[in-house]
């Protein structure tokens, strides 16, 4: 058992905080190697849905070290697991001002039939200098999710940004994933029993919508979940059983869950990986790197709290010039808390994935750099870069954090 004692400490310097490697500062905790690899208690456990900082010490084995570790992890806004995390948060040599993870909007509570809110489908439009964000209400037992006619718009032309509900026309049916492409916001809508799911294009200024894709040879998709589009007008989107299994809103699935490649110029559509012959039970988030030669896809599993489920990010190789356009996958990472839902990349190749309690960050080799935490009790679902600001959509709040990074997408 580890015997090195440590306590939280920090030194104020002109209103900022000096970061210490073995102590939580006013924002950053650098987990010492010996405490990361050998937990400082003789008996402990942690289930799938809890956070690292909620690890339970069992059988009365709490001690000074385990209590201090838990407190430091709880108090920090940034958990450092690799020195590369300091570059991301803009601290040179571990000394300097850590940025704040700032709540800029509190989402109102959902209707009585819901058990939680899910904010997904986030995308930035330079035409309006605003972010669009969908909202879903996973229902309580015995209910199904009722479509809502509005989405959130975060207007960045004021500070703090103005967040308001706006109404696409015609309305989206359970808007989930979203991406920006050549002047339009492309939403994935899950659909329901009366409206097939698929891809819907929205003008960010007029909010007028147009269905782009809603079938494969007459088959409905199951519950399309997330989308990204490359510079060659090729869309990649995920399709799972969420509407049928989680939301109780769609017809019985007729296709295997999977990930699809849609050439918008030619209409060619193919499923290139999925439950029919690949690693996915329920694919979820999807993102491209800056060079658009790597595709990242998250896997949920049967449920969010399934210990034997996905909880995995896969990396695929993309080559649209010759041969099979998408090959792989390679396991990029396995997530420690919940499952990776929304996923984004930055211009340096880092990968960001939502998690219970915050956003996990990896470098392009799959080495985890750290965790950006949200408020206690909240979870991140999706995120969007605008310049150096990362906007994080939680279940309860919208957050903004200024990073030494920019998103991979060029506008």
TrEMBL record:
Annotated signal sequence range: 1-23
Superkingdom of source: Eukaryota
InterPro entries referenced in this protein's UniProt entry, alphabetically: 6-blade_b-propeller_TolB-like, Oryzine_lactonohydrolase, SGL
The entry's keywords: Signal
PANTHER family assigned to the protein according to its UniProt record, in alphabetical order: PUTATIVE (AFU_ORTHOLOGUE AFUA_1G08990)-RELATED (PTHR47064), SMP-30_GLUCONOLACTONASE_LRE-LIKE REGION DOMAIN-CONTAINING PROTEIN-RELATED (PTHR47064:SF2)
Name of this chain's protein: SMP-30/Gluconolactonase/LRE-like region domain-containing protein
Domain (SMP-30/Gluconolactonase/LRE-like region) ranges: 198-391
């Amino acid at each position: 058992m580890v015997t090195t004692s440590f306590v939280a400490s920090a030194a104020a310097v002109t209103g900022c905080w000096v970061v210490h490697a073995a102590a939580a500062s006013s924002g950053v905790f650098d987990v010492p190697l010996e405490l990361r690899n050998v937990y400082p208690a003789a008996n402990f456990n942690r289930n799938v849905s809890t956070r690292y900082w909620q690890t339970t010490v069992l059988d009365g084995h709490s001690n000074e070290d385990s209590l201090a570790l838990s407190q430091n992890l709880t108090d920090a806004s940034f958990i450092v697991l690799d020195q590369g995390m300091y570059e991301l948060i803009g601290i040179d040599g571990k000394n300097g001002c850590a940025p704040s993870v700032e709540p800029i909007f509190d989402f109102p509570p959902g209707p009585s039939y819901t058990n939680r809110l899910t904010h997904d489908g986030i995308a930035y439009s330079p035409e309006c200098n605003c972010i669009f964000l969908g909202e879903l209400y996973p229902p309580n037992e015995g209910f199904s999710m009722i479509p809502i006619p509005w989405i959130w718009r975060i207007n960045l032309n004021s500070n703090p940004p103005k967040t308001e509900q706006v109404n696409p026309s015609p309305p989206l049916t359970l808007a989930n994933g979203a991406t920006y492409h050549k002047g339009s916001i492309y939403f994935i809508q899950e659909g329901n029993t009366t409206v097939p799911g698929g891809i819907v294009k929205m003008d960010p200024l007029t909010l007028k919508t147009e269905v782009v894709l809603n079938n494969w040879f007459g088959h409905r998709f199951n519950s399309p979940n997330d989308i990204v589009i490359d510079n060659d007008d090729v869309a990649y989107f995920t399709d799972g059983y969420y509407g049928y299994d989680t939301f109780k809103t769609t017809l019985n699935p007729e296709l295997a869950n999977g990930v699809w490649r849609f050439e918008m110029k030619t209409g060619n559509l193919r499923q290139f990986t999925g439950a029919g012959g690949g690693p996915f039970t329920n694919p979820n988030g999807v993102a491209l790197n800056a060079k658009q030669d790597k595709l990242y896809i998250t896997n949920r599993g049967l449920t969010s709290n399934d210990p034997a489920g996905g909880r995995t990010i896969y990396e695929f190789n993309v080559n649209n010039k010759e041969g099979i356009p998408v090959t792989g996958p390679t396991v990029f990472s396995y997530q420690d808390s919940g499952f990776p839902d929304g996923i984004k990349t930055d211009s340096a190749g880092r990968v960001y994935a939502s998690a219970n309690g915050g956003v996990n960050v990896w470098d392009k080799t799959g080495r985890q750099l750290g965790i950006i935490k949200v408020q206690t009790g909240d979870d991140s679902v999706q995120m969007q870069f605008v310049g150096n600001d990362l906007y994080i959509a939680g279940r309860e709040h919208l957050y903004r954090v200024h990073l030494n990074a920019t998103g991979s997408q060029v506008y």
